[in-house]
Amino acid sequence: MPRLKLTKNAIDSLPTHASDTVYWDIAYPGFGVKVTPKGRKVFVVLYRTGGAGSKLRKYTIGVYGPITLHQARVAAQRVFAAKLEGRDPASEKRTAKQRVVADRVDELLEAFIAQHVSQNRSAREISRILHREVGKVWGNKNIHEIGKRDVVELISAIEQRGAPTVANKTLKLVKTFLRWCVGRAVLDQSPAEGVPRPAKEVARDRVLTDLELVKIILAARTMDGPYGGIVELLALTGQRREEVAAATWDEFDLDQRVWTLPKTRTKNEKQHIVHLSTQAITVLKQKKKQGSFVFTVHETKSFRNFAFAKRRLDDLSGVKNWRLHDLRRTCVSGMARLGIPPHVADKVLNHQSGTISGVAAVYQRHDFLDERKVALDRWGNHVAKIVADVEITPLNAVREAA
Q1: Res. 42: pLDDT tops 50
Q2: The model scores a pTM over 0.90
């Protein structure tokens, strides 16, 4: 192939041929300019990956015009320097291009959800946050474009719209997602490391008063559909929202008054046995069997429309600023008032770590099933009593009570 001293004038005057022709620079061996049949001129570098006889590599610098001869020579020097370091610039460039195409955030998010999130009992909520808070902002970007500043700006925007708790949750999920990317060798390091939580979360300690609990239960009994039953069973058993809402009939033995939660549906992934008080049995017997789920609207799906139903319950009961999880806290607090030992209440709630800790926790394997039965029966009787005390009062009067 032709060799000449490349100058701007020399490049401008290079002729075109029927096929690509490379003109090599005498001053910089391995550096040249390729001229296509259409007259397009492209700077290239040719080098060997090893010593003599090793494989030749071609590195394309770019098109003459947007890139000047001086810029192209500087780029060529970088390529030769990288080659001396034992690197393969052409292969690195090709890999970088592939990463730009392959490592889109939206595609990685879907893979992360499918491989890491889908087995989590909170998968639906986690997926919703990732899609809404992360996917909508970063979805079309390449993961390698995301820097620490992008993470900070993403989380700050959520906090500034008045959602500090969501901001904290999103940051936690983003950190987990980016660490997952590091583990899959998509990223060398996570840009989220060192980013502080935007808001200090205050632990919730809302415990409903007996009167508030009565208002909620009485209002729940007036509601159509499965939601009222979910609320009352939550109040009577102290179990988690999803555990009650997605309960299936085959988990219950009403004759033995036992509800057995399989490990696939518990937070600590351990089977959990819940004694059913007389009051809980009454709630369940009021439900008609429509498919496998106890609380269902469409027979094949468990109840999901919590937000709308909760607003309706708030309006009916007159109790504000509470959430369903507060029923769980109210249950264990009420048991304490009734003299139930804390370690028994922990077992009722299926707490992974409770009041028994250290060496005692290692050797303490007793499930306290009899004690749990007593606790739930005593709590059920208490709930029945406080409801009965005001049940004859019109609901409007209950709402107005002090």
Answers
A1: yes
A2: no
